[in-house]
Design goal:
The chain is of the alpha+beta class. It is 21% helix and 43% strand. The strands form four sheets. The protein has a six-stranded antiparallel beta sheet, with no helix packed on it. It has a six-stranded antiparallel beta sheet with strand order 11-12-9-16-19-14. Strands 1-2-7-4 form a four-stranded antiparallel beta sheet, with no helix packed on it.
Length: 255
């Protein structure tokens, strides 16, 4: 099996499979494949456990109920998965002692043997306010996986006891040795006037963390002033707003 990430801002993951080799993705991730590859849809595929219980664990972590398994039959084949947002596709190895926690929509594809489940890191109260950073996917088992992260990516290696305070949506992926905690932003003015949310995620080493610069909720918030016209704008205002949105999106794809 060979893999290559093609492109930059809106990348494509291409995986070349030798006869009999397989790769598994969530339903809806597939983009294109050669005629030597066969696709089968089901709840197993070796990813996250077989049957209903394995599927429920994946769904609880933000994954899909069904999985697609792509297998090369009778010759070498290729299957491709395209990124949904501007960002990066990061290959990772999972094995004993190298479990990873990923934001809830991060898993793109993996080899059979990679297990996906939910990782609950806080109290229920923390989950209410933790936003995107609270419900996480846990990748365990043994194999290779490809993770989709949004925007630019910054990786930090935290020493034992070293911490980072992060907006929940910017948490992309981190090793299971890193402790994850949701804490309240100190100060009433900071919480209610700062426009940066009410809670931080505190990541404490040892271990590596990957932070993403443009999670979808933050992108949606940035575009909201140009999209929320309330149905009352005239053609001139609507045209100006449409141009602003087009310009904002255009600048993303020109990077």
């Amino acid at each position: 099996m060979q893999d290559a990430v093609q492109g930059t801002v809106l990348a494509v993951l291409e995986i070349t499979l030798e006869p009999g080799e397989s790769v598994v993705s969530e339903a809806g991730e597939f983009s294109w494949m050669s005629d030597a590859v066969e696709m089968a849809t089901g709840t197993g595929g070796g990813v996250g456990g077989q049957g209903v219980m394995g599927a429920l664990k994946r769904v609880a972590g933000g994954s899909s109920l069904l999985l697609n398994t792509f297998t090369a039959q009778g010759g070498t084949g290729m299957v491709a998965f395209a990124a949904r947002l501007p960002g990066r596709i990061v290959p990772v190895e999972v094995g004993p002692g190298t479990e990873l926690l990923v934001h809830r929509h991060g898993f793109m594809a993996g080899t059979p043997g990679v297990e996906i489940s939910v990782a609950l890191q806080q109290t229920f109260r923390g989950g209410i306010f933790g936003g995107e950073g609270f419900l996480l996917q846990r990748l365990a088992g043994a194999g290779k996986a490809w993770i989709e992260l949004s925007g630019e990516i910054r990786a930090y290696d935290l020493a034992a006891g070293q911490t980072l305070r992060v907006h929940p949506g910017h948490v992309g992926m981190f090793e299971s040795s890193v402790r994850f905690e949701v804490v309240r932003v100190p100060g009433l003015a900071n919480r209610y006037l700062g426009a940066d949310g009410h809670h931080f995620v505190v990541l404490t080493g040892p271990g590596r963390v990957h932070l993403q610069s443009m999670p979808l909720p933050i992108l949606a918030g940035a575009l909201r002033p140009y999209l929320d016209l309330g149905g009352a704008a005239g053609p001139l205002e609507a045209g100006a707003a449409g141009g602003a949105v087009a310009g904002a999106l255009g600048s993303l794809f020109k990077r």
